[in-house]
């Protein structure tokens, strides 16, 4: 990775000494160790269950009473011992143990590739890195011993200092101590960019690589926004390069057809064919440099192409990375899934801040053209994908509108539509009855029916989840990490999808999951499987005020512990958030998705869309308050809601377009 010219910045110029390069490789190694600890913790007892159980006996009573004391049962101690025993049995089942073994096998294979590529790029020996690791461990042990001593000497002062410390990144992305923080911030940012390119040179960008980069960002004391900016620039550069390479290949092919000399026909056809299939050579590299040069101003082109490796001049590899430039998720590849689940489609969400005039993809979007001839939108496609899945549909807008809060400048958002017609029937039967004030009599009548709409929706959600898992395993998203977000029955689609991924031992596909108001059990065994296939965060959002969910779920299932009503306990790595102050009814989730994502710490949220979401909810609540005393028909009430939302979105959209047009050019 030497610079192509003396003035260019490269990895070697950022880390000029062998000690710097060994330190960089050590940071990569230590951060992968942190990821492995997370994998290990998934299949271990939680801290609460590991804590020693202490019996509560009164010593004073024993001193006073000389007789034989009556045996007392500490019910909390007994319950904790029982929970620990049950949890150990769950973790020791053959199914969980097989998932654990497969998870470690995948992780160790991925880590081996990452560390080998890192050592090759930095030109350091693995023995040197292992030696540095031992020295680092000894130093950390010494510091920890000294810290414990200081805590005993001045406990109060140490606590005060710890409380005053603040970090830019959440503690879940644990930083490892490194001397690289002594570099200037600009150099640390360029180093992070180099490491992103280095990981992409493996021709894939799994979820583990993304989480690794978050730990590295924290270790280099860089905000997440720096990593997001690098990802966006790299995606833009790769797609620009692929566009130029494809265009040059087409031009050469036309030139070959018009050539008069057969010798030159053969020569030009060979060159055109080489460029078309993406063989790295004298033609592809300059075109790649021309494309990447427009976005990489800090690094030299020689360093960029060297770090990317084979990906630098191969359009097919770039197409595979982005899922054939995004066409796999909206093209013919999805047609076979519609045979299993009716109306199964990924709908691109294209009304972010990239282009205020651009609207959502039509619901009947046609398959896109093949990547060889399709115009590639380098601004739209990103290195990460987020799929939002709605649940309680009350209007046609509910499939896409809740996910407008996803920021398309940092990721590529999609909405999953699955059997909307069936949900329309369920809505008219179930939620329409609730809107008409038939609670609880209406629910009691519905619950008596074996195939009530809620039960049918649960079954169909389970089917849709398995189909979604198959689509992700087939790499419809390309080689990019996926974040899944869903509310109501939509979160059950995600639940079923993750369990299917666990059953098929498919790892590295999912970065984060957010399950909101989920009609799924909160038992620890299935959530352990879910945690095992998610590389990043597993978030359960619940509301204790969601009485509709509690009644419907328990009326159609023998299980009483519902994740949408309570926290998931005893599973390491599962985060629980109570949003009872935001949600007092199951149908409210649809209008607070943005605020929930902000509360749980999801960074990729568009603040302007969240404000619009708040305005819509206020308008609907005011409309419902005025119509509360009347006995309006169910359908009319829903039409009012849809009209209100369309009116507010149109009005806010016009204001945004006006602001864009008023900007000086």
UniProtKB/TrEMBL annotation:
Q: Where is this region: Disordered?
A: 52-71, 353-372
Keywords, in A-Z order: Membrane, Transmembrane, Transmembrane helix
Query: What is the membrane topology noted in the UniProt record heading this document?
Result: Multi-pass membrane protein
Please tell me where this protein is predominantly located: membrane
Q: Where in the cell is it found?
A: Membrane
> Bias category Basic and acidic residues: which stretches?
353-362
Q: Does the keyword Transmembrane apply?
A: yes
**Any stretches that span the bilayer, and where are they?**
266-289, 301-326
One GO cellular-component annotation of the UniProt record comes to:
membrane
Recorded family membership = Belongs to the TMCO4 family.
Q: What is this protein called?
A: DUF726-domain-containing protein
């Amino acid at each position: 990775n030497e610079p192509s010219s003396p003035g260019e910045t490269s990895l070697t110029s950022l880390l000029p000494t062998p000690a710097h390069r060994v330190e960089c490789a050590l940071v990569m190694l230590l951060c992968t160790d942190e990821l492995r600890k997370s994998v290990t913790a998934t299949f271990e007892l939680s801290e609460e269950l590991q804590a020693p159980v202490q019996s509560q006996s009164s010593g004073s009573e024993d001193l006073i009473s000389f007789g034989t004391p009556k045996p007392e049962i500490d019910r909390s101690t007994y319950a904790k011992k029982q929970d620990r025993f049950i949890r150990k049995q769950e973790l020791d089942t053959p199914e969980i143990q097989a998932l654990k073994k497969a998870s470690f096998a995948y992780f160790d294979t991925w880590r081996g590739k990452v560390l080998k590529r890192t050592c090759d790029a930095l030109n350091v020996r693995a023995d040197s890195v292992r030696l540095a690791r031992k020295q680092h461990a000894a130093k950390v042990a010494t510091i920890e011993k000294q810290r414990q001593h200081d805590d005993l000497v001045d406990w109060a002062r140490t606590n005060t200092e710890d409380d005053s410390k603040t970090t830019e990144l959440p503690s879940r992305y644990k930083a490892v101590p490194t001397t690289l923080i002594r570099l200037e911030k600009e150099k640390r940012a360029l180093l992070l960019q180099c490491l992103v390119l280095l990981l992409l040179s493996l021709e894939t960008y799994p979820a583990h690589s993304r989480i690794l980069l978050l730990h590295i960002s924290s270790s280099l004391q860089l905000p997440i926004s720096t990593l997001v900016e690098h990802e966006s620039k790299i995606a833009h550069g790769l797609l620009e390069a692929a566009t130029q390479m494809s265009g040059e290949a087409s031009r050469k092919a036309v030139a070959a057809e018009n050539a008069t000399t057969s010798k030159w026909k053969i020569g030009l056809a060979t060159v055109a064919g080489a460029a078309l299939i993406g063989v790295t050579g004298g033609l592809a590299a300059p075109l790649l440099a021309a494309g990447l040069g427009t976005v990489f101003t800090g690094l030299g082109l020689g360093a960029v192409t060297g770090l990317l490796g084979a990906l630098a001049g191969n359009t097919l590899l770039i197409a595979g990375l982005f899922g054939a430039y995004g066409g796999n998720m909206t093209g013919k590849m999805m047609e076979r899934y519609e045979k299993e689940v009716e109306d199964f489609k990924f709908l691109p969400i294209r009304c972010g801040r990239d282009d205020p005039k651009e609207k959502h993809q039509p619901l009947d979007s046609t398959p896109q053209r093949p990547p060889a001839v399709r115009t590639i939108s380098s601004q739209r496609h990103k290195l990460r994908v987020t799929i939002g899945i709605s649940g309680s549909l009350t209007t046609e807008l509910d499939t896409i509108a809740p996910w407008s809060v996803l920021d398309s400048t940092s990721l590529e958002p999609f909405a999953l539509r699955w059997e909307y017609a069936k949900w329309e029937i369920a809505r008219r039967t179930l939620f329409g009855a609730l809107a008409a004030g038939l609670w609880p009599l209406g629910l009691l009548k519905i619950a008596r029916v074996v195939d009530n709409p809620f039960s049918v929706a649960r079954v169909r959600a389970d089917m849709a989840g398995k189909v979604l898992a198959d689509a992700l395993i087939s790499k419809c998203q390309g080689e990019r990490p996926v974040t899944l977000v869903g509310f109501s029955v939509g979160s059950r689609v995600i639940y079923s999808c993750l369990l299917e991924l666990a059953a098929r031992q498919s790892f590295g596909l999912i970065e984060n999951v957010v399950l909101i108001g989920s009609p799924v059990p909160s038992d620890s065994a299935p959530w352990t499987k879910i945690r095992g296939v998610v590389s990043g965060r597993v978030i359960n959002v619940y509301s204790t005020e969601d009485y509709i969910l509690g009644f419907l779920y328990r009326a159609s299932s023998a299980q009483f512990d519902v994740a949408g009503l309570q926290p998931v306990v005893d599973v390491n790595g599962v985060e629980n958030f109570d949003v009872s102050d935001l949600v007092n009814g199951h149908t409210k989730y649809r209008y607070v998705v943005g605020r929930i994502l902000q509360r749980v710490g999801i960074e990729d949220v568009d603040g302007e869309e969240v404000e619009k979401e708040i305005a819509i909810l206020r308008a609907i609540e005011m409309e419902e308050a005025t119509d509360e005393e009347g006995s309006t028909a169910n359908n009319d009430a829903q039409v009012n809601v849809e009209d209100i939302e369309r009116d507010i979105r149109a009005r806010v959209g016009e204001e945004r377009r006006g602001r864009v047009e008023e900007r000086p050019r």
